[in-house]
Amino acid sequence: xxxxxxxxxxxxxxxxxxxxxxxxxxxxxxxxxxxxxxxxxxxxxxxxxxxxxxxxxxxxxxxxxxxxxxxxxxxxxxxxxxxxxxxxxxxxxxxxxxxxxxxxxxxxxxxxxxxxxxxxxxxxxxxxxxxxxxxxxxxxxxxxxxxxxxxxxxxxxxxxxxxxxxxxxxxxxxxxxxxxxxxxxxxxxxxxxxxxxxxxxxxxxxxxxxxxxxxxxxxxxxxxxxxxxxxxxxxxxxxxxxxxxxxxxxxxxxxxxxxxxxxxxxxxxxxxxxxxxxxxxxxxxxxxxxxxxxxxxxxxxxxxxxxxxxxxxxxxxxxxxxxxxxxxxxxxxxxxxxxxxxxxxxxxxxxxxxxxxxxxxxxxxxxxxxxxxxxxxxxxxxxxxxxxxxxxxxxxxxxxxxxxxxxxxxxxxxxxxxxxxxxxxxxxxxxxxxxxxxxxxxxxxxxxxxxxxxxxxxxxxxxxxxxxxxxxxxxxxxxxxxxxxxxxxxxxxxxxxxxxxxxxxxxxxxxxxxxxxxxxxxxxxxxxxxxxxxxxxxxxxxxx
Length: 544
Ligand SMILES: *[C@@H]1O[C@H](CO)[C@@H](O)[C@H](O)[C@H]1NC(C)=O
Ligand SMILES: *[C@@H]1O[C@H](CO)[C@@H](O)[C@H](O)[C@H]1NC(C)=O
Ligand SMILES: *[C@@H]1O[C@H](CO)[C@@H](O)[C@H](O)[C@H]1NC(C)=O
Ligand SMILES: *[C@@H]1O[C@H](CO)[C@@H](O)[C@H](O)[C@H]1NC(C)=O
Ligand SMILES: *[C@@H]1O[C@H](CO)[C@@H](O)[C@H](O)[C@H]1NC(C)=O
Known about the structure:
Strand content: 15-25%
Helix content: 25-40%
Number of helices: 14
Strand order of the largest sheet: 8-7-4-3-9-1-10-11-2-12
Shape: globular
CATH class: Alpha Beta
Bound molecules: 2-acetamido-2-deoxy-beta-D-glucopyranose
């Protein structure tokens, strides 16, 4: 009799334990694939309404999952990658301002724990393929010393798509070296177009992944960043030829670079499906900042009609593409709440079954995004004491103070949008894309109407700006205030109309300014010159 009761109790206990533990165990085993594009602008993905440059695989992630309509990042690569990895505003880690150059002994301080370190603690296998750019002067800054089991890719801002050289303009002349590494070793054996190379590496990691562990794969593509001066735009000729409908010859090459990036997203989705783990994988796609329509690293990307480009806190520099595909059983939707680059760390940790850390700026938005609930984020702060601006988004308004690069904070890229004849058919491209086919075959319907998403994301400017119109630029004590919901193109300064709101926002900024870790100046160390390292940009500071 006693044993009967013991049996019953055991049964009840095991039932309760099963019910309590299994969903969590299942949750904690979800794989995460984080794909980051480099300098991909608002108007460079077709989900935002243009048929000129088609990105059916990238768009499908959102159509079958969640399209982020108000995803914000930093306007420069090093700060946005530091924020992505740490979950902290870049100005609180000293990583704000001009991106890292090859001769600098600077990096995201190792005192900050980063996403792969958290995931490794949860048992994840962690791999970085592609760009790093948050420090490579010392071994301790390298990805394999900071939570990644492996790294294959470039450590600095960009490389040549075929030779993997990175070049800088020093006072002694041009300085150049190879910047492709496999873990700590120069990858002299690497061959092929960089986007293919990174794509193949990502697929081989997926194929050989040991499923007893969850997988974290960060695929930080070079594309569509420009390469070095003299050969800024590079894509396989046959792909460029397939873009003949693009009127601008430069943007035609850029479109081919984006096509290779989009194809890679399709290949990754297909590889996950073939491996049989797509149903347990979260895929995030983001751009690090806006497109670089003009200037030193011009790639002929377009953020039009948004104002500003990469390096500017105006919308074109910071409002970028974001999409999530998740195995959750949720209705696909367009998420209109604010999501910021710092939010990925807590959000993905939550998705992996861990409570997010407290000492960060990011918000855990996992359930809000998945269930289409109001975002807990209503404020986004960006401070750059090097360029000299501070900006804050608060609810519907954005305030910019200090000084910005005016030449990067105007309207650019409209002239790049011309099409010869008819553009390719978008719906056909979607239906023929690998990602769409895989998701559809999986039984994930598209309850959301594709054209309704595109229409909702098509930016209508409140006012058309003509060349001789005077628009607000911050500086000399002038601040600029915009209603970015009603006036997404930031045409109309409201600071005179709402002085109290300006004061309120300035107060928040002044409090935030106390948290700034001052940006140290960019100091070039001649000993970093690749001539001393067999023509590679390698670690040049030995720490004993
Ligand atoms: C380096 O790379 C290989 C695979 O490419 C991996 O197996 C190895 O563990 C990596 N990590 C380190 C720290 O060397
Ligand atoms: C490189 O330096 C030379 C001479 O100072 C200058 O003319 C040129 O514009 C610079 N190029 C870039 C990309 O900064
Ligand atoms: C995913 O699919 C595979 C086979 O197709 C199946 O064995 C596995 O249980 C599925 N996993 C989840 C989490 O649904
Ligand atoms: C600030 O004032 C100086 C001197 O009057 C002027 O040269 C400069 O263009 C002004 N800057 C801005 C951003 O208005
Ligand atoms: C030095 O560079 C060459 C390519 O220029 C490469 O073949 C060789 O293996 C490198 N040597 C070492 C020691 O890494």
